[in-house]
Amino acid sequence: MSDELKNAAENCRAWPFEEAKSVLKRLNGKTPDKGYALFETGYGPSGLPHIGTFQEVARTTMVMNAFKQLSDIPTKLICFSDDMDGLRKVPPNVPNPEMLEKNLHKPLTKIPDPFETHESFAHHNNNRLIDFLDRFGFEYEFLSSTECYTSGRFDEALLKMLQNYEAIRQAVLPLLGEERKKTYSPFLPISPKSGKVLQVPILETSPEAGTIVFEDEDGEKTELPVTGGHVKAQWRPDWALRWYALDVDYEMAGVDLKSASEIAGNILKILGGKKPPGFHYELFLDENGEKISKSKGNGLTMEEWLTYAPHESLAHYVFQRPKSGKKLYFDVIPKAVDEYISFVNALASQEPDKQLQNPAWYIHNGTIPNSQHTPVSFALLLNLASAANADNAETLWGFIQKHKPDATPESAPFLDRLVGHAVKYYEDFVLPTKQYRLPDERERAAMEDLAARLDALPADAALDALQTEVFSAGKENGYAKEELREWFQALYQVLLGQDQGPRFGSFIELYGIKESITLIRDALDGKFAQAA
To answer: With 60 as the cut, is the pLDDT of residue 160 above it?
Structure first.
C-alpha cells in the first residue's frame, strides 16, 4: 500500500473504516492468540438464503477489507449456520410439508430433506447458502452449529455456562413474560427419546458432573451432559456462547436484534469475554415504507433484484447509509445500477482520499477489473430498448456495436449482463406502463427543428454536437433556460412514452442519428400515440 493510501485509510470516516477501527481498538493493534481477527455473520437455515443474508455478508466483507488497509493482522470471515436449532414451524413454499410437520422441533440437521437431495433439511439449505455466497465471490469459512456442538468445540464454553447458570438466566429474565420466566433455561435439552429440542424447565444443575436434569416429554426425569451435542443453548445465550468459544472480534446485526445483542453481550461478560463491536443496520422497507416481511411477501426478493440488475448494484445499494431504512422495490433498481456504474468509472482517476469515499472501492476491494467498466448507462439501455421495442439482447447489441464497433459480449461481459437485465426490465416494467402522447404546438415546432438539425449533422457527429442541437432546438422554440427540463420531458413522453431518461444526446449517439430522425417524425405523425 502506498503511503498516500495508508494515510487516507487512517483518516477515512466512511462507515466501513469506522467499524474497522473499532476492531483494531479491540485488539489493541495486535494479532490475537488465535492468529487472526475474526469477523462473523449468522444464518438461520430454516429458510433459504435471501437479500438479508447477502447484505450482512457484503457489509461485513466491506468492514474486513477496510481493516486490511489499516493493519497487517490476518483476517477470517465465518458464515455461521445455526443448524442445530429446532424447526418451529413449516416454512412456506417447500415440497413435502407433511414430512416437516412430522419432524417439528427436531434439530434442522436431523430433519429429512423435503427436497430429497441431501441428508437433512439443514444440509440442503446450508449447501444453498454456500452456493449463494460462492456465486458472488465472497471469501469465507462455513461453520455449522451442529458440528461445533457435537465435535466438542463448544464444550469448554458450555461447561462455563453451566457454572454460571443462574447468573445467565437472570440476565435474560427481564425480557420475558411472567409465564415464560417460570420455565426459562439457558439450556435446551435434546430428548434422547424423541430427538426434539425441548423448551422445558431445568430441575437440577450439576456443574461438577457437567449435567442437567429435566423432565422428558413422557414425564421421566432425565440427566444429560451439556457437552457433546446433548443440549442446545437458547438463542441469546447461544449467541454469547458462539462469541466466547470462537473469540469473535466483529459481528453486525439488524436493528431488530439490538436488545438481544445487548443481552448476549451481558452473558458474554459473565463468561469472561468482551462483546465484539458491530453496528445495528436498519431493515429494508417496501415502497409504502413498511418493513419487508417474508410472510407478507412485500418488497423485493434477492432473486427479483438479480433478474433485473447485476449483484454489484445491490452491493452498492446496501453500502449506502446502512443505519437508515431504505426502500427496496423495483423502481430503485435503475438508479442503483447507474450510480454503481458512475462510481466504477470514476475510481481510477480519483485521489486516494476520494477513492475511499467511493462505494466501488469497497465492493471490489480497491481493484476493479477492466471488464467492469462500461460507457453505456443502464437508463440509456432501457431507453434504447424502449425506442427499438427490443425483446432480445441481440437487438440492443446491434445498436451498441454501431457506436462501439469493438464491443462484443465476450470483450465486455459486464455490459452484456446489463443488456440482458435491461431487456428483462423493459419487458416487465417499462413496456406495460408506456404511455405516448401527441405534442402541443411548441413541442411540435421544437421537435421538427431538432429533426432538421440532426439531418444536417454528419453520421459520426460527436456527443457534444448532438447535445448542443438538442438544447438549441428547445431554446430557439420558446423554452427559456428554466423551462428546458419540460423540453426534455416532452421528448421522452412523445418519443418513448416515458417521463424521464438519460441525456437525450447520449440516446441519439447510441440509437443513431438517422434512426432518431425517423423516431421523431413517426411520433409527430401520431404513429405511437395512435397505436397506444
So the answer is: yes
